[in-house]
Amino acid sequence: MANLQFDLVSPERRLASVEASEVQIPGSDGDMTAMAGHAPAITTLRPGVLRVTHGGGSDEYVVFGGFAEITADSVSVLAEQALPKSEVTQEIYDRMVVEAKEAYGKAQETFKNEPGPVDDAAKLLSDMVAIGGHIGLTPRP
Predict the structure, then answer these.
(1) How is 83-132 classified by DSSP, letter by letter?
(2) Ramachandran category for residue 136: left, alpha or beta (phi over 0 → left; psi -120 to 50 → alpha)
(3) Contacts for 89 with CB less than 8 Å, ≥ 6 apart
(4) Per residue in 99-128, pLDDT tens?
(5) Sign (positive/negative) of CA torsion 115, 121, 125, 131?
(6) 27-25-79-44 Cα dihedral, nearest 10 degrees
(7) Residue 51 near residue 32 (C-beta atoms within 8 A)
(8) N-term to C-term CA, the chain
(9) Checking DSSP bridges between strand 30-35 and strand 41-44, what pairing results, if any?
(10) Between 90-110 and 115-135, two packed helices, what is the crossing angle to 10 degrees?
(11) How far is it, in rounded angstroms, from Cα 84 to Cα 103?
């Protein structure tokens, strides 16, 4: 089976650099799976869970913002924020949801007659809640 080089970095650290068989990416225009021989593409990321499958199994990372560059033999993900799924505690998750709620409230106040930014903030909040469901956490009230 052909493989590709996978690299995931955030401003804080390099999270992964492995030879992978596939990478599932939460793209802003929809989820996508990159494998060896993939057509070149660049996509922005939405908040979600990125999964990389490699010879040793698979790893999951929670990513927020950034972009992924895909070529026939590599996937490079530059995330605004990223954590291994195992490092996302209830406290960290709650903080992320609170930040998304605050961004939604601010967008509602700032853009009273412009639905686009308000819809974007609502989508961000929805994505944050969905991440919790995927990793087994529920936002606290």
Answers:
(1) EEGGG--HHHHHHHHHHHHHHHHHHHHH-TT-HHHHHHHHHHHHHHHHHH
(2) left
(3) none
(4) 999 999 999 999 988 889 999 999 999 999
(5) positive
(6) -20
(7) no
(8) 47
(9) unpaired
(10) 170
(11) 24
Query: Cα–Cα distance between 51 and 62 in angstroms, integer?
Result: 9
Judge contact between 67 and 95, C-beta under 8 A.
no
Structure tokens that stand for 13 in this block: 């650290």
pLDDT in tens, 14-52: 999 999 999 999 999 999 999 999 999 999 999 999 999
- β-bridge mates for residue 16, sequence order: 8
Beta bridge partners of 50: 61
SS3 of residue 66 by DSSP: strand
Give me the amino acid identity at 70.
Answer: I
Query: Helix, strand, coil % (nearest 5) of the chain?
Result: 30, 45, 25
